[in-house]
Each structure stands twice: as C-alpha cells, then as structure tokens.
Structures
1.
Amino acid sequence: MQFILGQRWVSHTESKLGLGIISEVNGRRITVSFPAVGEERTYAADNAPLSRLIYNEGEQITTLDDLKYHVTSAEEVDGIYIYHCEDEEGNGATIEELDLSCFVQLTAPQHRLFSGHFDKNKAFTLRIETLNHIHRLQQSSVKGLLGARTNHLPHQVYIANEVAQRFAPRVLLADEVGLGKTIEAGMILHYQIHTGRAKRALIVVPDSLIHQWLVEMLRRFNLAFSIFDQSRYDALTQSNNDEGDEFAVEADTQSNPFETEQLVLCSLDFLTENPAAKTHAVEASWDLLTVDEAHHLHWSETEASIEYQCVEQLASNSAGLLLLTATPEQVGIESHFARLRLLDPSRFYDLERFKQEEAGYQPLNLLVQQLVELQSSGAPISPELLKQLGEFTDVSDAQDIEGIIARLLDQHGTGRVLFRNTRAAIKGFPQRKLSSYPLPVPALYQNHTTGITGLYPEVITEADEWIQSDPRVSWLEAKLKQLKSEKVLVICANASTAVALEQYLQLRAGIRSAAFYEGLSIIERDRASAYFAETEGGAQTLICSEIGSEGRNFQFAHHLVLFDLPLNPDLLEQRIGRLDRIGQTETIQIHVPYLEATSQESLFRWYHEGINLFEQSCSVGYSIYEQFELELLEQLQVNDGQINALIADTAAHTEKMRQLLHEGRDQLLELNSCKLPQAEAIISTIEEEEDSPLLEEFMMRLFNQFGVDQEHHSDHAHVIRPSDHMFTSHFPGLKDDGNTITFSREKALSREDMEFLSWEHPMVVESMEMVQTAELGNATVATISVKGLQPGTLLLETYYTVNCIAPKQLQVDRFLPITPIRVMSDVNGRDLGQVLPHERLNGMCEKVKRNTAQAIVKQVRHDIEKMLTHATTVAEQALPDILNKANEKMMRSLKVEVDRLEALQAINPAIRDEEISFFKQQISASADAINRSTVQLQAIRVVVTN
Ligand SMILES: Nc1ncnc2c1ncn2[C@@H]1O[C@H](COP(=O)(O)OP(=O)(O)OP(=O)(O)O)[C@@H](O)[C@H]1O
C-alpha cells in the first residue's frame, strides 16, 4: 500500500469513523484523521486495517458541501484521485478526493451484485448473524461487563455496573484493603473503553505498583497500557527533537509525548519530580484518570501537598476520575474532604459544612432505614415520615421510594461519589490470628526504650551491632526455621532495617530471602517479589520496608511478621492487607515480636487491647488515633507502665465509634456500595451469556470463513493459527504463531496461557466490526424450490441497518443500536417476511454457479433495481419510529443528569450554570445526530425459485 497525504481511506475495524484522510506519513507510521467524528488514528503502514475508497464511473459521490454528483471518469494525479462528474442537471464539476464528504456510505452491496462480485450463502448468513449479534449486544443490560478474567464477586460487579454506566464517572473507590479496588477500576475502565465512553485513560500509581497494574489490566481485561517513565519520556521528547533539526525546538514544545498513546500508566513520583512531564500529562487531557493509593494526597486548609496539587491539575483536565484508597481518612478528615472535592467540587465545596453533614448522618440513616423497610413491605410512606423527609429532599412523588432514597444519598451523604465495602458486609474472609512475642531489652538499647526511638531503636544503631544483639533478629531466624515450608512476609518501618535483616538472613542464617525497599529500582522490586512468589525454589521470606505494605498481592503467604509497628493504624491495616485479601485461603497468622517494657510494648497493647486492630479491620482507626494521639505519644515517651487507663479509654471510644458508624455513615455507605439482589441479577445475566454456546459456534464459523486454522485443544478450548488460505491479510488479534483460546471463564482463571474469548474480547469485537464494515457476504444469489411458486419467480431479501454518524463521545449507540431491518419481497412488492423468515430461507437456499448467477442478475437487473427501491422505501418507513424511540431513551437518560444538577444547585449555589448547560448541549447534539440517521443497505440476497 502506498499512502499519500490527502488520500481517502476507510477503517476495516471501526466503521463509525467515516471516511478518513491521510494527514501524516512518517516513515513506517501513518496518521489518518476522521473529520466525521473528530478523531485521529495512527497505524503501522505495513499493517493498517484500511481500504482505499475509489469511485468508479457511474457511481454517486457526495462532497463536503453535501452536493451529489455522478462520476463520469476518474484520473489519478500524483497518487490523488480527481473525479470528473455531473450533477442531476448535467452540469459538470471536477472534484478532488480531498473534497469528498466524510459521512459517506461505505459499503455498497448493490454495486458488488451488479458487477458480479457475489459471496457464498454461508458468508451472507454469517454477515446477518454478525449484525444481529452486534444489535443484541448493543442493547444488552450487561454490555461492558462481559469478558473480565475474574470471579464474579457481587460487590465488585455492583460497583462496576453502577459507576461505569455514568458519563465521565468521578468516584472514590474505598473498599477495605484487599477487596479488589484494582479489579473494580479495571472493570470500569473496560466498560468505559468498550462502550466508547472513554478512549484516553491515564493510571497514576506508586512506583512499586506499576508492574502489578500493568499485568492486572492486561491479563484480566485485555487492556494494554503503556508505561511512561523518565526514560520513555526522554526518548519520546528526544525523538521529537530529532525530527527535522531546524524545527527541533518547536517540535519539543508542540508535540506531547503523552499523546502518543491512548492508555498510559505512570507513577505519581515520576510526575511530581518532573515538572515538564507533569505539564505534558495535564495538557494531554484524559477521558478517565485513575489514581491508586490516593491517601497520599494530603491537603489541609493551609497547605496542599505536591502530590495533591499534581492530581488536582490532572483531575481538572480529565472528564472522569477514579480515586482508590482503602483508608480514605488515613491523614484526617481534611484530606478526605479534599479528595471528595477533587471528584465533585460542586457537591463538596465547604469543609465546615462537610463536617456538620458527617455528624448528621445518624438521623439521615434512620430515615433511609425506614424507607428501605417500607420498600420491602410495600407499605406507603406515612404523612409524618413524608414531612420529615421533606426537610431533606424533594418528596413530590411519594410513590417513588427508590428515587427518594437515591436522592437522599446523593444530596446528603457521600453516597454517589464514595463506594466502600467492608469485610463485615461481604463475608467469607478468613480469620486473622495474632501471636505476640515479648522479648527482653538488650543492653544495646537500654537508653532507647521510650518514644519513637524506642519503637525503632535499631535505626540509630550500627547494623552490625543490633543484628547481633536485638532479640527480634534471633527470634525471627528461629521462627523462619520453624516455619520452614511456609512463605513468610516480614514488614518493618525502615528500609535500613529491611536491608540489614535480609542480608543477615540470607548470608548468615542461610534462609532464602529477598528485600523489598525504596532503594531498589522498579524492576529489582518486581524481581524480588516474583522470587518470593515462586513456589519451587523461591524465597521463603520477603523483607519489606513500609513501601511493601501498600497495594501488593501476597495472599499466597499465610504468615505475616510485623517486625515493628507503624505509628498509624491505617498503615497497620495496609500491612495486614497484603495477606488479608481476596484469594487468601487460610487463617492469617500475624506474628508480633516486641521488646518488653518499652514503647514497643505500649504501642502493641494500645493497638491490640484498645482497637483490636490485629484481628479485626477498623475503618476509623485513624480518627481514633487522632483523638488519642497526644496522650498516646506522651505515654510512649514516659513509658511508665501507666498506659492501662489510656487503653481502657481507647477501647470504650472504639466501641462507641463502631456503634455510631454502624448506625450512621457506614450503613449509608454499605447501602449504596452493594445492593445484593441487583448484583446477583447482573451476575446471573452475565453467566447466562457466558454459558450460552452462541459465541463459540459463531467464532468457529468466523474462523472458517476467514481461513483461520483451528485445532481442538480441550473442552471449550482451541488453538487457532493463520493458514495459507487466509481471506484477509489481517485477522484481528491472531498471532503469527497462533493463539490458544478458551470460551470458558473457569478455564481461563486457571490457565494463564489461554486467552479468554468473550463477546467483548478485542478479537471478537474487531472481527465483528470487520464483517460489518467490509464487503464479506453483502451480496449473494441462491435458488429455492417452493411449492406453489412458479419456477423463475424472483425474490429479494435485503438487510438494512440504522446508520448514525456522530462524535464518539456522544455515545449515541446506547440509545440507537444498529437495528437490522429485514425486507423480503417479490417483484410486485408483496411482503414475504412472515412467510419466509430468514432462518427458514437459509435452510432452503441452494448454491448457484457463479456464471449462472451472473447471467441471472444481468437478465433481471431492472427488476432487482425496482425491488431494491421498494425495499429501501420500506426500510425508510420503519426509521421514524426507531428514531423516536432512540430520542425518548436519550432524553430519559440525559435528563436525569440535568434534573440532578438542578436539584443540587438549589441547595448548593456552587454548581455552575455551565455544568447544567453541558448536559443540555449533549441532549441537543445527540438529538441532531439521531435525527440525521439514515438507513444503510447491508446485504442483498437474490433468490430465484426453480
Ligand atoms: N473478582 C476477582 N477474581 C479474582 N481475583 C480477584 C478478584 N478481585 C480481586 N482479586 C484478587 O484479589 C487481590 C486483591 O485485589 P486488589 O489488588 O484489586 O485489591 P485492592 O482493594 O486494590 O487492595 P489494596 O487495598 O491493598 O490496594 C488481587 O490479587 C486480585 O487479583
């Protein structure tokens, strides 16, 4: 293929892009702009899924100004076509291909039919089957939720379904540690990208989690993110500079490395340490920004951390935002409020007001509970309750209890933006068992037994010395030897402690170990944790500094040693969460060695007896800590054994807080974070779709049709390979050396090497698009024998789809699916749709030799043209009804957003009018696009009786 600027090409894989223009040819890469949808694509020149659009004599073309002409002749000048044309009045015109409309009809079955390019009947039926599947899937209630290589867990599926359907969702995913926030974010990303709601996504995570995120997104959701780090950024900026020396400076400022990829993964440190990269990342603007471990974003009324400021800038230039943290209040209510403000500045605009609201959740919860009960009993709301509710929200429709609950949660709780599931609500998690080991203080530490120093005395001591005399070291060595066949995760607060410990265990005690700390590069850290994960010959223990306490998956281990304790309950929860997470199969053994009669013992007792934090997770650990911080620090400092009173106070306060939370905020959150019956209904629909044999059968037919070789592997699993009789040079996702695929999620969960093919796997999606967009099966001829019909009777079966070309961000297909319209008639325009349904006709059709078929078509061309005109009229008659329904659906969906913002604006003047008018514009732009839709002929089958 030779690409020249200004040529017009059509995408095989993305039919909705319209007619593209080659806008850049750069060595082995070409860029095509698609003005109809305002998008651009860059392809490798030798493998671009594109077809050149060239018109022949007699064909109709449409110009940019929507003028129509017939081509009288065409010539190619320097690789660009020039069409000599006439309009209906016979006026001549010369039109360059650059002036062609971007909204052209791209497939022309009738052209192929009349020029003798037929397909076999099988290809025709495959085409119709494909159209029907696309239509069915566009309307599926579980669209976007299929195809994740995960177990179906109700709390995750519920959140994904709830959040992903929103336009540009902005939420805080705050499930307790290890309940699968990464998976929830992946499900939301998959949904948004699959449905076209998002195209550009940026994920920002701590350095140590880059690899884990990369793997989870690819392995579970087929989302291939590109890692951006300093070296990649430098290479991209450098290559910009190298492109044409004289423009070097200009190129550097003009082209943005973050715009070279759609799905980008990078670390927060990389952005905060490199202002130029941060500016580029912000300017690149994203449809969906995801920030993991968002508790690092500190903010107070007087000071915002550099991390907060960075995410604030990114968030203000991103349509959607997912913030993830298991410990939303880790650094206090101010930061929690500030993160909510990032999500919805109009809803969270005043800290004081937010604090008051938090305090008032109890009465609100009582009201919501009453409504929930009424909802299940079916009883109406009493006038008295209605009056109370009226003080909180609009209750004009007292029948709509669900609507009232939703409004209460939206307008008064953090419900709409904050999702938090707890172990208590989910159940099925293993137990945590604590073992503590009081040890004598060595002489070396005699002067370091109190305060913070007493917690980490080794830090101020030479490694050689403390390793020798700290009894925790010999205890650890003995414990590891005792647990010889078990994996043991060890966490300590400081990197220097981790390094010294690991060296000792490895070199002196002969224990297979690895260290994981901030001084290692990302690759070294990944290598260390992979070594720990290996079942045979891997490390028995991984010694982590505090960075290992975040985000990582170590649930294959069942023993956790807390070599010291952090001075923050949320950090302690994070540490335990490495093992206490989905996938943990056994009771978690938590081992805590401490030095007797030192601040270590006091802190251990305070956590254990005051908050019971080792054996039970506690969502308000940090606020309890804040409450007792000064007293606790004092006790640690004096360390005179008088901590009992503080422990008793803490325990009483913890109990009260747990109770309050249970009655107030947590219940509201839980109510909002997982509605079990809905989640179960969604899961059962997903599983019905997965259990159906339709996909496997369909894909097998598709592989056959395209010449992809298949070999049975095992139940619902196959090996597919390119063959030397391939129908196209490019079959989506097919590797040169083949792929092992399975249609069973169960199998895919246990077999990493297999690709899990679902209706939403890129191979399936793109090959269906390829069928829809390309010509395959769009024209065929067949014969049938029907009693009562004269031999030689001509019948025509046509399929039309509704063609709506609109910018992708409007996502019009959620309201207006392609809607195949079948018209089956004879020469007299008699409707035979009922008498000869498609499936029945398929069974009756017999092959016709190509020569015979060409002769038939030539002979009856005039009749076919007449029948086609009639069929188009019939299809067009069906259109207004379809468009009306689409408009109604669109109005219903977008109007809810307008109403919600208007209701919020009534109590919150910070909501800007522009926010409301944004949705109003969406309504009018969508209506315009819907009303401009036309019917598009997709396939013709000429049938002759014999
Ligand atoms: N639905 C699922 N099916 C299979 N595995 C899952 C599922 N959900 C989560 N997991 C696994 O459970 C572990 C915890 O999930 P994830 O990392 O998403 O939790 P998290 O809430 O982000 O944790 P943290 O709070 O530590 O950041 C991971 O190993 C993940 O792969």
2.
Amino acid sequence: MVVESQRERQPRAAETVIEARGLTVGFGDTLIHQNLDLDVYRGEILGIVGGSGTGKSVLLRTLIGLVKPRAGSIRMFGTEMATAGPAEAAAVQTRWGVLFQQGALFSSLNVQQNVEAPMREHLDLEPELRGELARLKLSMVGLQPDAANKMPSELSGGMIKRVALARAIALDPDLLFLDEPTSGLDPIGAADFDNLIAKLQETLGLTVFMVTHDLDSLFSICSRVAAIGNKKILVAGDLETVVAYDDPWIKAYFGGQRGRSAQLAHG
Ligand SMILES: Nc1ncnc2c1ncn2[C@@H]1O[C@H](COP(=O)(O)OP(=O)(O)OP(=O)(O)O)[C@@H](O)[C@H]1O
C-alpha cells in the first residue's frame, strides 16, 4: 500500500529541476560533502534524510547559493549557477522560495510586511496590490486575516512556520526548499503542516526539496527520498528502495520502533 501510494505520486516525466554533480563542500579542514551527485525532479516532494551533522542543511544552503562549493556544479532549471551572470542568477533565484528551520522571520516587521519583503525586493508593485497579494498568501497557508498585523513575537511556533511558508511562496516560486518544516511542532500541528505542504505542492505544481527527520512526513507526503551519509548521497529512490538499502544508519532509522510505527501508520 505504501509503495503503491508512493508510486502514484511519482512525477510522470522526469524533468530535472536541480542537477548537482561532484559537489565538494567543506569548512576549514572538514569536508562535509565529497563528490556528491543529486537530481531533483519536477513535481516531486523529495525528502532529504541522514544522521545529525551529515550535512543536510549544508546541502540545502549550497544549492541556494549561501555556501560556495569547493568543486562541482549546480544546475538549477538548466542554468549553471557558477557561471551565470548576476541578472541570470537573480532571475533563477526568484524561481525558488525557502523556509528556514526556525522560520527566520524579520522580528521588527509584522506578518504582512514579512510576506511582502521578497515582493519589495524583486517586484515593482503598488503598495495596495502588494498588501493584497501578501494577504492572499497568508490565506493560502491557512492564516486568518487578523494575523496580518501581528508581530512575530506574538505568534505560536506553528504560526511562525506558516508565515515563513507564506513568505517562501510570495513570488509564486516553482521550487520550494524546506529545512525541517515540522521540527518543534506537536504531532497534530506537524500532520497539519505536512498536509498544507502537500496541498500547496499539488495546487501550485511545486517541486519540493525537504530536509526532514520526521518519519511521518516521509511516509505521508514524500514521493522520493535521498539519504545522506559518508559525505554523499547513499541512496535515492522511492521509500521501498531507501528502506531496503544496506546501511547501518538507514537500518537503525527505518527499522527502529519509530520507523516501524510510521510505516504501519501510513501503510
Ligand atoms: N558555516 C559553517 N562553518 C563551519 N562548519 C559548519 C558551518 N555550517 C555547518 N557546519 C558544519 O557542517 C556539518 C553539517 O551541518 P548541517 O547543519 O548541514 O547538518 P545536518 O545534517 O543538517 O544536521 P542536523 O540533522 O543535526 O540538523 C556540521 O558538523 C556543522 O557543524
């Protein structure tokens, strides 16, 4: 059952949105990734898993250009990012949105202003239209209109994630990067957020790159999973393929009590 539902969610045509080849990333004397290859296909929700410190967030930050790789290439929507000119790179960058782990809202801006921030930076819109669009994005992530004037300090953890998600979709992206979107949420809040991600992915036709530890997210909404270990992608494929892969961390992660419970719950 799990396998069938995973297959149903596989994109039909495997058009590559992100193509990373031979990525080597390090800090000082420490190598985090060495010769890492990864493809992300249009229309999929790809879950990135791996032990703590294996470099899942570093991979996300490398793909969006915040960490410069020592070697290798990253093609985003067919554009080689290392050699793209500033205008071309900026045009590609507006095609993705990012939800960072803690939400990373601007604490001095209210909710609506946070969602408007990318529009201010990249679009030349009248203030009324910008406000209207921001409120539309907020309603798309399930927030009531009265949330618009609240400050980040007045929000619950779940609301912060929703505002951050509204900001991530502010520019109508094709691609969404999510870093541990359900971390810090209670199980019901996490399940609601998973459902929201799946709904947005489907209605907006998004491609989603999602770093997660959350087994429920993997089993409920991911169409494919890539596991990081030994500085590279150990295995990428449907859950059945990844779960069956012979690696001690994968066996401990999926074969432990929580992994078995998640498989049963979503089976
Ligand atoms: N800017 C940086 N400078 C130096 N080291 C860094 C930097 N950013 C990350 N690291 C190191 O890179 C390694 C991978 O970090 P990363 O946050 O990607 O791990 P992760 O797989 O996301 O872990 P977790 O699951 O615990 O969040 C860690 O050892 C971290 O300390």
